[in-house]
Amino acid sequence: MFLAWRELVFARARFGLMGGVVALIAILVVLLSGLSSGLVNDGVSGLKRLPVTAFAFAEGTKTDSAFSRSTVNVNLAEVWKSRDDVGDAAPFGTMLVNAKATTSAGAQVPVDLALFGVDPGSFLAPAVSDGAGLGDPDGIVVSETVLDEGVAIGDTVVIDRLGTRLKVVGTTGDQRTFGHVDVAYLPLRTWQQVHAGAGPGDEVRDGAYEEATAIALRARDGDRIDLPGGDAAAGTTSMTLDASFSASPGYSAETSTLTLIQVFLYAISALVVGTFFTVWTIQRKHELAVIRAMGASTGYLMRDTLIQATVILTVSTAVGFLLGVGGGSLLTTTPMPFLLEVGPLVLAALLLIGLGLAGAVAAVGRIVRVDPLAALGGQR
Amino acid sequence: MTTSSTSPRPDSLRSGTQERGGLLMEGVTLTLGDGDATVTALDDVHLEVAAGEFVAIVGPSGSGKSSLLAVAGALTTPDTGRVLLDGVDITRASAREKARHRRERIGFVFQSGNLIPALTTLDQLRFALDVAGVRPADGHDPRELLGRVGMGHRAKHRPHQLSGGERQRVGIARALVTRPAVLLVDEPTAALDRARSDDIVTLLAHETHESGVATIMVTHDHDVLGHCDRVLSMVDGRLSE
Fold first, then answer.
1. Vertex A205 angle, CA A199 and A209, to 5°
2. Which keywords appear in this protein's UniProt record, sorted alphabetically (chain B) (predicted)?
3. CB pairs under 8 A between A and B
4. Does B7 reside within a domain?
5. What's the Rg (C-alpha) of chain B?
6. Number of structural domains, chain B?
7. ipTM for this model
8. Residue B14, pLDDT score
9. Is pTM beyond 0.80 here?
10. What does the pLDDT average to over B194-210?
11. Residue B116 covered by a domain
12. Which of A37, A180, A285, B21 could cysteine-pair with A339, CB 3.0–4.6 Å?
């Protein structure tokens, strides 16, 4: 402790350089964490805001793309609803469409929409902050982000190719996106027509009104549902809401890429710190031999080095995070998906400090091999 | 650890000029190297240095002088014989116990001081006390000791701001501040001119007699031997008067 502080001050340029590298890495970690959270939010915030415990997809649906592949019979909702641990169950339809909105000023705005087909009377029906709720066959309730694109309540939205005309009647007042596309709630029956590819006046094929993407399930208490048991009874493949995120378009690819980059940053940070303290220890080899000859225990010397590592890591991580959060908050005003969440940031800070310390610990192992005998003689 | 490791030395051994045990080496042999290339560094060495006595050991390079310091200083375990420091047998101590003997019973003065670059003169002494786990109480006052070695005016300077002689004075003060029983001095004048060498050895002799430490100085420098109580010479690992 005595020497650790004085060396930090004495060799402040060297420690500062290493701290600067760690701080820069910390900034990158914050930005990536924000980007990661932002992408997740962009990808699945529509799902996160559903009052749903789990989804039951068609039996045998591949997990990674269940939302675009699965089609289930709406009557399966009744099978699930009859189970003791299921509080409520309702058919849920989703699909991505391209559309054009015509504003009151007469301008045409292209919009991409993730249609969420829900029964207006079911527990899935969205709460609206502005305008009216679901009810009219052609009335849609949209994510706040749609309004940011210049569309207003009362505007008409026409789905490309089909020509289905929908009317914006309300907004949820928050961001609801799915696969980076803004969510528009519409009545399940209208969704079924669009899903069957039937435009205005077209004949809707047989069975279309019995189709949905999945059955949305809500647990009676907490989040406990016997999914395997229900699957066996209903003939479905179900997964929890969290598990269903990876069934959303692009979700796994995006998050795994960003996670990989962050893992690399942690590894680089640990290596930088480890390398620094290895060189630092080698440089002071003779000095360490003198201190050992004076009778310092190995623990005394290791403690000193680890105190130095802890101080440098904590200070530089804190500085990097402050700069990262400051810079990142500027990004949240841009269309870039960026979201700073306390949980992931705290975890990232602890990982940076923890892994940096691990690097330092690996380096100070050299102290054990410093022979106090080297203090005798004329090396200096 | 033995029980003695946790109990402090009696106060009589810690304070001031009271008599301490000095150093005793009996039949110490040390062989260095392995296989065909072994060298007998110490050959049946007997040496007794009383508290307050200043002994110089001279001899050519490779005669075993450094090995003698290493064995007396609990840095190396001899092959045979025994070493008593301050009445305590350190011959078969573990590495951990040796470190404790070094910080409690031994002071080293190295060539050209070997001070810690990051520390001021005063902090060199306070650091030695910190390593030894000693509070700067009576008899351990670093400022008082710096004054005694003539370095009181350089308390805030770092090693690179000091001359060779000044560094060596600080090195001596650092070795003495923990009040060791034995002071082991390795070629203290190797980097100094004639006048400075004389000053340093005079200081060592004075401090040895004042503080009652048993001092062994290994040196090449025959000009400084006049200040020593006894001069021994070492040739091929053998010690003689």
1. 90
2. ATP-binding, Nucleotide-binding, Transport
3. 81
4. no
5. 17
6. 1
7. 0.87
8. 41
9. no
10. 93
11. yes
12. A37
